[in-house]
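INFO batch 0412 | record 1 of 1 | parsing
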Amino acid sequence: MSLLSSLLVLIVVARLFGKVFAKYNQPELIGEILAGVLLGPAVLDYIQPTAALAGISELAVFLIILSAGLEMRISDVLSAMRGRGLILALLSFAIPFLGGVAVAQVFELDVMRTVFLGLCVSITALPVAVKLMENMGILDTKIARYAIATAIVNDVAALFILGIVLNVPSQPSFALVASTLVEATGKLLLLAGGVLTFNWFLAFLDRRQFSVQVIPERLVQYFGPEALFGIVVLFVLAFGSVSEFLGFHFVIGAFFGALFLDQRHFLASRYEDLKTTLSSVTGGFLAPVFFAFLGLEFQIDALDNIEFPAAVLAVSIFTKVIAGWLGGRIVGMSLRESMGLGCILNGRGVMELVVASIAYQKGFIGDEMFSTLVLMGILTTFITPIMFGGALSKQRLITYRESGVA
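INFO prediction complete | emitting tokens
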């Protein structure tokens, strides 16, 4: 089948499956992945995961990361790293990470697969968490504030660690790993320093009452309104290129570049136009291709040892809920609020699948690990609203929305 025909079938089926799941208050990405599983070698063997589709999938990763960055602000990241909220965020990352490492040790995995398993277990998908809480009408509650801050810190920490891990040689010795880690950490600090310096410069312009939005407005006036999306993409691509120049994955710099795209740097109408355009290109076309492509690469035969996927699923769910509950109690939440927070943090989805895809494409993990991580991403995202409904019953959820007390 030709590339365009494959894309046509993949997009249509993925969008249909996604809308079916959305109708039942489930993230569309679950349906899109299952569409790929159905069409791919695992079931019907109708579409093969080709190099051309992989290239389009990489472009989709870039735009998904750009969309995730637009959902956050660099100020939100910095504020999330202060006070007791930081303790909650660290617990929700460290406990699942250690749980993933423990599973890897039981099954005698090598260092690389151990680290990637720990990373993928630790991540909380911010877009999935935001969408879920928006559907339940609790975005302005204490659970939502802590869940969003925690997801931000988790995703940023995972991307930083990913940047270091991708620089470690595939056949490591202790001395080689040590020197690589020192070098990678130095480059990562350089990248972080550049990000913080740029943020300081923007804050300095704000204090001097310089309207940063004048710059994109002048560019739009010169090139035309339709050029805004291209200007933003070029801006983020520049950060991604710097990241790649330093030896890290492109998406790491792109993510931090997207964090700077604050609404205050655009006219309100321009910012909404930007988000609408990005949503149309990403959500309507490229994101379904990426998630469906993950489904195409999913290999059911790789899960012949059911013990490993079962252990990963059990540990990933248990450690996230426990970490969220413990952190919630530390920051002063009630018992039910803490349980609800742990359930929300259990949803992995987008970011975990991006990390798994990068690791798989780079050859750091094999078929069994990749298929297990895809399965974990699907199931943990699927059961998150169900678990939250168990922690806060329908009547309690209504009461919580109205009074903020669970």
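INFO post-check: Residues 174-207 form the longest helix (34 residues).
INFO record closed
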